[in-house]
Amino acid sequence: MLDQKNKRPPFDHTAYRDFLDDGVIGAAAIDDKGIIVYANQAELQLTGYSSEEYIGKPLSAFYSSEKGNIIKLLQEQQETNNLEVCVICKNNIDRWAILTTRHFTDADNLTCTYIFNRDVTQYKKNEDLLWYLNTAVEELAQARDTHTALQKISKLIVPKFANWFTIDVLNNNGTDLLILAHEDPEAVNWAHSYRKNNPIDLNSDRGAGGVIKTGKPSFVPVITDEMIKSAISDPEKLKEIEKIGLQSVITVPMFSKNVIKGVITFISSIPGKYYDETDLRFAQNLANHIALALDNARLNEAAIAEIQNRRQIEETLKLTQAQLRSALSSGLVGTWTLDTQKNTLYFDESISKMFGVPYSPEGCDPVLLRQLVNVDDMNVADRLRNKAIAEQGVYETEYRITVNGINKWFFVRGKTELSNQNNEKLLTGVVVDITDRKRAEEALKQSEDVFKLIAETIPQKLFVTDKTGQINYYNPQWEEFTGYSIDKIKELTLTHFIHPDDLQNNLEAWFAVVENGDDFQYEHRLRQKDGEYRWHLTRALSLKDDQGRVVKWIGSITDIHDQKLKEQKKDEFISIASHELRTPLTTVKAFFQLAKKLIDTTDRSFIFIDKAGKQLDRLEKLIADLLDVSKINAGKMVYNTEAFNFDEALAEAVESVQHITDDHRIIVHANANVSFKGDKLRVEQVINNFLTNAIKYSPDADQIIIRSFVQENNIIVSVQDFGIGIAGENLNDLFERFYRVDNTAMRFQGLGLGLFIAAEIIKRHNGSFWIESKPGEGSTFYFLLPINGKQDFLDIDTDNKTYYKGNFVSISYNKHTKWLDVDWKGYQNLESVKKGCLIMLDLLRKNQCKKVLNDNTHVLGNWSEAVDWGSSVWFPEMEKAGLEYFAWVYSPSTFSRMAAEKSVDINMGKITAQFFVDTKEAAVWLKNK
Ligand code: ADP
């Protein structure tokens, strides 16, 4: 019996399942492989599947646990109690369940695991929502500014609770969209633009508008396509809305202290994810917390603003008090009070000092001060004061008082106030000594008057610009000249009157000056009212402030037309005269040659004939020079280009000069036995000129050395004499027309045209020239002619950042010393100097370096035109790029050193430059900077 009792009957699955079939708890059974073999009605209802869809499938297809493989978990333990699992129900809806299991083995030894499933989705959801709410409230409470808190909350909500989350707050005339959140930033952009076009309609009974109107939430648990279609008639709008994929929407009002502040909307756009009443409660709860937080934030912000405002007021007050104290202590400001009832004036010691009257703390009769005021100002002051008292207003005037014989200006200001007792009127105020200001104003006015007077009376046209170079003043002479009113001229601007052929260069020159702040000088033609163009010289001086910034340019434009015409006439005359002189001279020379042949050299008259011949040669040369100059000026110099052997031409030139001198021997070192393409006669003319000058300016010497050689595709010629030499300051002007060094002008015959013509010829052959000279020791004149017709300045290698190598310069940034090493080589001209300097500027910028070691030791000549460009354009740019120290190592060539010094002296700005003869010394100097 006992045995019978203890022995359990074999487990009967069928009976057990019959029993479970009608149970309210979900139950299922899996075999030892985890395949579902049984499910009761409650289980099928819970998961939403039919028994065909459910039974026969592995349990893991529906159930999962965070703890690991669900089947293992269930089968490995004898019994499982309260395992939290997630159930994937039909239509992908997730539910949460708590599982309990039991294993049963039947008579056939078949083991089944029974699963009992309690749906806890709702609890779980409540728990989650509670967590959201708590976290959100915490965020809001901790937040320094609400906006950041709301951003964080958005992240909590999206996408777990809602796919779209918006907060709109009411303002005076509508709503502001405070938050619009979605996972996809592009969707956010789209929604913003949608909302811009479709703001909340506060008059609507539906949606957010309705919620605001009624204060009641709007909750649509399941949104069907039909619902959307019936609500939105505009097809465009409908298309847009369909993009959202609305599934379920909650819009709740935000209340704070029973006042509606705005609305919050939660949208689910995941198919099957629908909101329920719990969600609605959560939404409402959250909305109220947010409303409260927003309210608090607003109060907080207002409080902070108020505190800041007060602080500012306090600061200003402190400042004003300090200013007042310092004003009062300056002795230039005094305070006063006029008691109208008692007719007593009280003033402080400052006023007593300023006006030179005794100080009395008991006050005095106002007449005492009134009578001091200059009669011309007295009546105005009286009238204004009485008016201020009558109208209880402000009294403000300026008057003069003679203090100790000196006329002084004072500014007075007062305000009428009612005193508390007896309704007395008190006028209280200050007096300020404004004599200095008045004097400055008068001086300014006077100088302006003087300027106006000058501007209106002088014959020149004047203009004044602002600091950007825009003209803002034209004197009346412009009206007379152009026939337009000043206003019209301002409208047309000066460029309207400039000759089209001069305009481009004129503007370039002007813009360069505006950039550098230099003075300006330019010759151009301006159109007068009858349409005729007249030559003018424009000069503009820049006016600078204390910091060296240009304030304005003042320009004068002088009519130089007649002068210019005279010059042209003179040139024409020289041209005609030299032509006319040449013809008879040629005839005279021919007859002279004949005569010379006929006379016996032993004849006494031969000496005279010979002398006459030399003078004839000189005359011929002078006339030829004059003719050349007039041709150069008229741009009519013709060059006959041909290929010739250079040294042969040189020999011919030497021979013709040697022929006319007995005192000097010309020593020739000719090493340019190359073919050169150019105007042979003109090149000979240059050599001829250098040689005759060398002879002329070395009367006590007996030899001249001429050298020719080829270097780097250039023919270089030097003519060296041992004569009087040239002082440094005269070197630059030598190549000007009619220029002669002062102290030689009287001693030596000449017109000062030879070098001008020579320079012109060399330039036309794309060559360059330079001079080395020492007064008393002699000069060497050089010129260079490029064999290819153009000097080649070739790039060899560069990384465009730290180094550049060319055949004329090498530049490299030394990262240890942090300076640019620049080594110029060979013969330079304007082109090479510009090219090298611009590369230097580029590397200086790229390496942000402040120092340059500019080595000219290997320079062999320099083109003087580069000097002006260097000082006016390049140096200021280098300064802007950050250059601070510039070590300049001399070239042995004097001319180049001259050029160097000129550049730096002219435009040092913030740059410190120093000259050296030794590269090492230069490096030491730079290192110590
Ligand atoms: P010119 O010799 O007719 O005066 P140039 O144009 O040939 O005109 O020379 C201009 C000036 O340059 C001369 O007046 C003289 O002062 C100076 N000059 C030219 N060559 C020499 C030289 N070799 N030595 C000294 N001074 C010279």
UniProtKB/TrEMBL annotation:
Protein keywords: Kinase, Phosphoprotein, Transferase
Residue ranges constituting the PAC domain according to the UniProt record: 393-446, 520-572
Pfam families hit by this protein: GAF_2, HATPase_c, HisKA, PAS, PAS_3
InterPro entries: GAF, GAF-like_dom_sf, HATPase_C_sf, HATPase_dom, His_kinase_dom, HisK_dim/P_dom, HisK_dim/P_sf, PAC
GO-annotated biological processes: regulation of DNA-templated transcription
Class of the enzyme per the UniProt entry, highest EC level: transferase
GO MF, one example: phosphorelay sensor kinase activity
Domain PAS: 12-81, 447-517
Catalyzed reaction equations: ATP + protein L-histidine = ADP + protein N-phospho-L-histidine
Catalytic activity, EC: 2.7.13.3
Record carries keyword Calcium: no
Domain Histidine kinase as annotated: residue spans: 576-789
Residue stretches spanning the membrane: none
Protein name: histidine kinase
